[in-house]
Amino acid sequence: MKRVVILGATGSIGSQTLEVIQRFPDHFQVLGLVSGRRSPSQTAPYVIRADEAGAEARIEELVTHPDCDIVVTAIPGAQALRPTLAALRAKKIVALASKEVLVMAGELVMAEAQQRLRPIDSEHSAIWQCLWGESLESVSRLVLTASGGPFWARPEADLDAVSVAEALAHPRWSMGPKVTVDSATIMNKGLELIEAHHLFGVGLDRIDVVIHPQSVVHSLVEFVDGSVKAQLGHPDMRLPIAIALGYPERLPGVIPAAQAAEVGRLDFHPLDPDRFPAVGLARRAAEAGKGAPACLNAANEEAVAAFLRGELPFGRIIPAVAAALAAFPGTGPDLDAVLAADEWARDYFKAKSGKLPA
Ligand SMILES: NC(=O)c1ccc[n+]([C@@H]2O[C@H](COP(=O)([O-])OP(=O)(O)OC[C@H]3O[C@@H](n4cnc5c(N)ncnc54)[C@H](OP(=O)(O)O)[C@@H]3O)[C@@H](O)[C@H]2O)c1
Predict the structure, then answer these.
(1) Using CA of residue 150, residue 151, residue 157, residue 162, what is the dihedral sign?
(2) Counting atoms of ligand 1 from 1, which one is nearest the CA of 180?
């Protein structure tokens, strides 16, 4: 029996994690639920809302509690970093949905992880599964699949005129607002590229992105002998969640298997870097290092939040992130430097507020 703490319990990943736990009561028990402003609909021995007094210290106590076996991190953005690091330092298993954690502080987090970090992001879960039983030396390339979001298949769409409702209407996945907007700008894939680089120790120059509108192939791994492995499944996050919680056991009947004859065709297309420059921007930030990925992440969070508030056109989200990165002076690799880079980007946006094109 594994006792689980869920960070982000009221969200999309959090509620699907609760569903998986309820389906397998002989395997898992909920120890604690952490949310932002909403209260979870179910109870648990420990329930913490982040807007309560003293919440930060109580969350740290919970993720390091001796009774806690697994921490599921599903808080969007930089807020997920501290509790994830605390859980890993306390030798807990962390099932990670919050890709921002590895984008901001990949080296620091991986130094603490010691095989205890399990991906929930479907692409990284796919790569992880393809790598079971393989040696890293035999891997030549990782290929992340991207659905393309709502605008990839609409080249005529004027991205500056996109409404919040249009950006939130993802064709394949039902997710929280931040990650849904990231999918529409394809920054989500940029963040995932950095996440994959840290998680699997593969060079950035050996990780690619391909558009796959059906979202059935969740990612691919190419090997030095020319073999390619892929993981297929219906687009349903309960599967990668169950894999992260249950590893090394595969839990029975989590979702129905994708039937090849029903799936029919699978399409793959190259990503157009001019129309969707976010992946290239993320790649360059990761190559630059010195806090640039943390700056990219915070600038993206601020730009997405400004778009959701109606203060920034959709088509200006990525140019605004690029402008912040261009002005960023660079920091260093330790936690203080990462947090300083995060703060720098948020101050940059505050200083720009009112001057962003509405
Ligand atoms: N959804 C997906 O299918 C999916 C797939 C892959 C990866 N991810 C990643 O998973 C993470 C979560 O995404 P999501 O779609 O589940 O987001 P979401 O639906 O917006 O849920 C976010 C959750 O985090 C909580 N929260 C917000 N700020 C918090 C804080 N400061 N402290 C504690 N809890 C806080 C929210 O609580 P309140 O609602 O009470 O404010 C909510 O429970 C993101 O990093 C995303 O990129 C998501």
Answers:
(1) positive
(2) 15
Nearest alpha carbon, ligand 1 atom 22: 11
Q: How far is the CA of 15 from the centre of ligand 1 (A)?
A: 10
Ligand 1 center from residue 288 Cα (angstroms): 28
| DSSP string for 137-152 | GGEEEEEEEE--TTTT
What are the tokens at 57?
């210290």
Give the predicted TM-score (pTM) of the model.
0.96
Average of pLDDT values for 107-121? Answer: 96
Cα of 13 from ligand 1 centre, angstroms = 7
User: Residue ranges per domain, the chain?
Assistant: 1-119, 122-275, 289-358
Numbers of helices and strands, H then E, in the chain:
14, 11
Residues with CB under 6 A from ligand 1: 7-14, 34-38, 50, 74-76, 79, 97-100, 121, 173, 175-177, 179, 237
Q: Do domains 1-119 and 289-358 have the same CATH topology?
A: no
Tell me the pLDDT tens digit for each residue of 250-297. 999 999 999 999 999 999 999 999 999 999 999 999 999 999 999 999
**Over 80: is that where the pLDDT of 129 sits?**
yes
CA of 140 to the centre of ligand 1 (A): 33
pLDDT of residue 155: 81
Ligand 1 atom closest to the Cα of residue 98 is 45
CATH of domain 1-119: 3.40.50.720
CATH 3.40.50.410 fits 289-358, yes or no: no
* The pLDDT of residue 302 is above 90: yes
Which residue, judged by its Cα, is nearest atom 30 of ligand 1?
36
Q: Strands, DSSP E only, in the chain?
A: 2-7, 28-35, 46-49, 70-73, 93-96, 117-119, 139-146, 207-211, 217-223, 228-232, 269-270
pLDDT digits (tens, 9 = 90+) for 154-167: 888 888 889 999 99
Q: Which pLDDT does position 358 carry in this prediction?
A: 58
